[in-house]
Write a structure and sequence with these properties.
single chain; alpha+beta; Peptide Deformylase; five-stranded antiparallel beta sheet; 5 strands; 23% helix; binds zinc ion
């Protein structure tokens, strides 16, 4: 189900809580909503659709990937990026990002995994993990 986007910075500045099995329908809605904004948006966090649970969805090499409770364990190679955000109005803003990140997360089957991501995909994940932590660019 496609859900309306939240633009309230106070709501978006609060940290999301851990997601569990009961939140898998939110993950599905997040994918549906991200797909509806294809072309404008490459990633979303659940608080952007009004649910403060730690769930993100993003483009990864032409497909969509969902993570529950993502935690960045390691980051290497800082650079300054300019990013836009569908939840925020205005021009792109500067953000410090890292070329390589190692992320622990749970899949939609609630399996815990750790993977390394590089470049653009890593940048999207960092932006969405920030959303889960209540950090806006
Ligand atoms: Zn954003």
């Amino acid at each position: 189900m496609i859900r309306p986007l939240v633009h309230d910075p106070i709501f978006l500045s609060q940290k999301s809580s851990l997601a569990g099995k009961e939140d898998l329908s939110v993950a599905k809605d997040l994918l549906d909503t991200l797909n509806a904004y294809k072309g404008q948006c490459v990633g979303m966090a659940a608080n952007m659709i009004g649910v403060r649970k730690s769930i993100i969805a993003f483009e990864n090499a032409g497909t969509y990937m969902v993570m529950l409770n993502p935690v960045i364990l390691e980051k290497i190679g800082m650079y300054e990026a300019e990013e836009g955000c569908l939840s925020l109005l205005g021009e792109p803003r500067k953000a410090k990002r890292f070329q390589m990140i190692r992320v622990q997360y749970q899949t939609e089957r609630l399996e815990t995994r750790t993977d390394v991501f590089l470049g653009w995909t890593a940048q999207i994940i960092q932006h969405e993990v920030d959303h889960c932590n209540g950090i806006l660019i």
